[in-house]
From TrEMBL:
<dbReference type="Pfam" id="PF02517">
    <property type="entry name" value="Rce1-like"/>
</dbReference>
<keyword id="KW-0378">Hydrolase</keyword>
<keyword id="KW-1133">Transmembrane helix</keyword>
<dbReference type="GO" id="GO:0006508">
    <property type="term" value="P:proteolysis"/>
</dbReference>
<dbReference type="InterPro" id="IPR052710">
    <property type="entry name" value="CAAX_protease"/>
</dbReference>
<dbReference type="GO" id="GO:0004175">
    <property type="term" value="F:endopeptidase activity"/>
</dbReference>
<feature type="transmembrane region" description="Helical">
    <location>
        <begin position="217"/>
        <end position="237"/>
    </location>
</feature>
<protein>
    <submittedName>
        <fullName>CAAX protease self-immunity</fullName>
    </submittedName>
</protein>
<keyword id="KW-0645">Protease</keyword>
<dbReference type="InterPro" id="IPR003675">
    <property type="entry name" value="Rce1/LyrA-like_dom"/>
</dbReference>
<feature type="transmembrane region" description="Helical">
    <location>
        <begin position="20"/>
        <end position="38"/>
    </location>
</feature>
<keyword id="KW-0812">Transmembrane</keyword>
<feature type="transmembrane region" description="Helical">
    <location>
        <begin position="83"/>
        <end position="112"/>
    </location>
</feature>
<dbReference type="GO" id="GO:0080120">
    <property type="term" value="P:CAAX-box protein maturation"/>
</dbReference>
<feature type="transmembrane region" description="Helical">
    <location>
        <begin position="195"/>
        <end position="212"/>
    </location>
</feature>
<feature type="transmembrane region" description="Helical">
    <location>
        <begin position="44"/>
        <end position="62"/>
    </location>
</feature>
<feature type="transmembrane region" description="Helical">
    <location>
        <begin position="132"/>
        <end position="153"/>
    </location>
</feature>
Length: 243
């Protein structure tokens, strides 16, 4: 039997790496472009709209590779015990995120002398004193736009793409988690340094839960929605005083 040449798999490997980098850049570029255009028109939920545009592009790339969202963990738990496990894991994730936001982020921000810009919450003022508008925003933007959308794109697409890029081993996974957290943090740059630190930390927590739990998105979607719901409800009930 003739030995196989080494050049072909090497070239194929490099081609895959280039494809992944290009796909990630295109998806992020589409998101940023849509977000910029939506912001120029003062569109409500501009970030969620941009996120879902990125999801559609990501789905196109995944489909070309024969990968579905189900393959990336978008499934419901099966059986009562799995539901209990998923919801329990979601609640533990919420606790971890709240501890991060209450203890770690303020400490690091104080050490850096960083503060959240007051303008970062201006986009929420439109629903203050408007309960029906608030509920609609909670459902469409917080749960569908952020909870479902960000988990699909950030964990389902981006994290998996980076693991494929860096390698499915300890060092590669660590690099993928770190870079995906940095990207997620920088997408919240309007919240200042504390916002970047907080969201990057949340991305690390969610990535660890995702990977240790067999890459299942459902617990993260629930946790993400609950965390955002808690913060936005506190803002609403305090008439914008709690941010």
């Amino acid at each position: 039997m003739q030995p196989q040449p080494l050049e072909e798999p090497t070239l194929s490997h490099l081609a895959d790496k280039k494809r992944i980098v290009l796909e990630v850049l295109v998806v992020l570029g589409v998101m940023l472009l849509v977000k910029d255009v939506a912001d120029r028109f003062n569109t409500i939920g501009a970030g969620s709209i941009a996120m879902w545009c990125g999801i559609f592009v990501a789905a196109y790339f995944m489909n070309k590779q024969g990968v579905s969202w189900k393959d990336r963990g978008l499934t419901l738990p099966s059986g009562s015990m799995n539901w209990v496990k998923a919801l329990g894991l979601a609640l533990l994730t919420v606790v971890a995120v709240l501890l991060l936001m209450a203890l770690v982020v303020p400490l690091v921000s104080a050490l850096l002398g960083a503060h959240v810009p007051e303008s970062s919450t201006d986009r929420f003022e439109f629903f203050l004193g408007q309960p029906l508008v608030f509920v609609a925003y909670m459902l469409v933007v917080i749960w569908i736009g952020a909870a479902v959308g960000e988990e699909l794109l950030m964990r389902g697409f981006l994290l998996n793409s980076l693991i494929e890029l860096f390698g499915d081993h300890k060092k590669g996974i660590s690099a993928a988690v770190a870079l995906h957290a940095l990207i997620f943090g920088m997408l919240h740059i309007s919240q200042g340094v504390p916002g970047i630190i907080g969201t990057a930390g949340v991305a690390v927590i969610f990535a660890v839960v995702y990977l240790l739990n067999g890459k299942k998105l459902f617990p993260l979607i629930i946790a993400h929605g609950l965390v955002n719901s808690i913060s936005i409800t506190a803002y609403y009930l305090s008439d914008g005083k709690i941010t």
